[in-house]
Write a structure and sequence with these properties.
- It is globular and about 50 Å long.
- The chain folds into two domains: about 120 residues, D-amino Acid Aminotransferase, Chain A, domain 1 (2-Layer Sandwich); about 170 residues, D-amino Acid Aminotransferase, subunit A, domain 2 (D-amino Acid Aminotransferase, Chain A, domain 2), CATH 3.20.10.
- The protein is about 25% helix and about 25% strand.
- It is α+β, with helices and mostly antiparallel strands and about 325 residues long.
Length: about 325
Amino acid sequence: MFDNTYFPKAKKYWYQGKFYDWSQTPVHPMAHALHYGTSVFEGIRAYSTSKGPAIFRLPEHIERFFHSASTLSMEVPYSNEEITNAIQSVVKENDLDSAYIRPLLFYSYGKLGLLPKFSPVELVIGAWEWGAYLGEKTEKGVHVYITPWKRVHHSQLKMTAKLGGVYVQSAICGTEARSLGFDEAVFLNLEGNIAEGPGENIFIVKDRILKTNDKTESILEGITRATILEIAKDLGYETRIEPITKKDFFQADEAFFSGTAVEIAPIILVTDGSNPSEENKEHAIDAGKAGDITLHLARTYNDLVRGKINEYERWLTYVLD
């Protein structure tokens, strides 16, 4: 039996066209993805609105889902429309007003050689109620640790895809950061610039100019990142896409994480542990508190995902009966 302590309100999940009780396990333990990380996934949120639950930027998530699958040479057994409908049905089946939604395509049971040649591609979709990824510190601001481990480089893997196996690095370094007393990790890339968090993009603000990096800096260009760039321009802020050095990061007026799970979370303290031969050094971002522009963007984002700003309602897919 599997309880749902860490998956609030999750009652059923969708697997290969059918609903299963949360405790059922139809996947064989010799599934290829379980051994080699040959899976792709999306993290998607639905929010409570006056018109019922609405899934934020669902078409963009599905588009990236298929892109990720192509990177692993997966023949997806369902169409875009079928996956869209299945995701909506999962939210309905679990009677969720708001939800974190996880679709996963994976190479299943076949032959356990390294190449998944004889392993069929299967799809599972789960959804549950999940608050802020970094908890109460999402509003107050987080203390991050620059890990000595460099982010997987864009010359090594296609970083535009959400590949399950790549996230073992995120799990290792996120766990390390927390074991040292920090809230989250931050990666440098092989060039020594700021890359991203284990599952978050990074923005900084300097002289009221909003800056983030791009895929050439070994990041996944997140859907929330793209959203912030658009709403920031609409709010009158200048935006730039260019590398972020450690010096830029330490001397920023403001900094924050962005991502579907984390949403927008201020970064207020940075400890640099990137060079194991040197003593760790702590840097406060501005006065060590969340900045005004970060908070303005966070308020706007929180309103638009809940259908309170008509201009951005085009990004919402309503889950209607």
